[in-house]
């Protein structure tokens, strides 16, 4: 009987294996070229601002000691360009995709013994737990609503200082009195709120760096910030940044003094919260 409809077999690609194969092939070319030019790892690390451990991991084809695939690809471009070797096609074949099926495949092949929880609760024990939870909830709420003794003492001291202030202190000779006599307006300075309502983050790239920015749980940017570029993001709750070259970035939060979050060539991740 002729089968008109056949079910296509889904092909699953192991990107990790492809990456390993491509990296091993590229690493041989880079190492041979470096040795033929007479360069050592330390000198190249100083020129490219890439750590010696990363350079050794690239030449040894060790993916476990390297960052995300997209950043590895940029490292290979930078390394090959410095050595003057044309391996664009090999780098182009280096995949950056992830294996979403890998975890499921391992689960299917493992002999997993199901475990069932069997807990029998007596109704009277549930009632006791409910009463205990209710008691601690009321106690915690009472502690939150009750003013602290430090606040009460501070208010008392402030009130006493106002009551005991002599009347003559309001007419002491100072620059403010002179302004009042001349009918000039005295500026009023408003209190500054120490608690910001948002996180305003400015990033100034001093060197090329791969960056991933997550704002309030959503990935807003993932790519390469080139040297000299500046970016600004605003978060209302949480700001997370992961940088492949942490020493090449200057980060300022709410217009404070810019700071580095790590060393040159170092992979770092920080999270800021309101």
From TrEMBL:
Domain Cytoskeleton protein RodZ-like C-terminal: 203-271
Name by which UniProt lists this protein: DUF4115 domain-containing protein
Organism: Cyanobacterium stanieri LEGE 03274
Gene3D superfamilies reported for this sequence: lambda repressor-like DNA-binding domains
Top-level taxonomic group: Bacteria
Pfam families according to UniProt: HTH_25 (PF13413), RodZ_C (PF13464)
């Amino acid at each position: 009987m002729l089968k008109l409809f056949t079910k296509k077999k889904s092909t699953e690609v192991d990107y990790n294996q492809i990456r390993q194969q491509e990296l091993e092939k590229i690493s041989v070319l880079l190492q041979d070229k470096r040795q033929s030019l007479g360069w050592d790892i330390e000198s190249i690390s100083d020129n490219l601002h890439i750590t010696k451990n990363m350079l050794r991991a690239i030449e040894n084809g060790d993916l476990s000691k390297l960052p995300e695939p997209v950043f590895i690809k940029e490292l290979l471009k930078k390394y090959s360009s410095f050595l003057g070797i044309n391996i664009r096609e090999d780098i182009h074949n280096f995949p950056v995709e992830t294996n979403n099926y890998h975890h499921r495949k391992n689960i299917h092949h493992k002999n997993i013994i199901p475990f069932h929880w069997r807990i029998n609760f007596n109704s009277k024990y549930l009632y006791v737990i409910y009463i205990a939870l209710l008691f601690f909830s009321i106690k915690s709420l009472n502690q939150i609503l009750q003013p602290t003794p430090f606040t009460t003492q501070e208010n008392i001291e402030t009130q006493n200082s106002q009551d005991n202030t002599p009347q003559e202190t309001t007419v002491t000779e100072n620059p403010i009195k002179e302004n009042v006599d001349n009918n000039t307006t005295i500026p009023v300075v408003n209190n500054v709120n120490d608690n910001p309502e948002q996180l305003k983050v400015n990033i100034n790239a001093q060197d090329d760096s791969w960056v991933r920015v997550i704002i309030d749980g959503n990935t807003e940017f993932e790519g390469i910030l080139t040297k000299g570029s500046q970016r600004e993001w605003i978060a209302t709750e949480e700001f997370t940044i992961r940088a492949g070259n942490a020493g090449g970035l200057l980060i300022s939060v709410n217009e404070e003094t810019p700071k580095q979050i790590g060393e040159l060539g170092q992979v770092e991740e920080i999270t800021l919260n309101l």
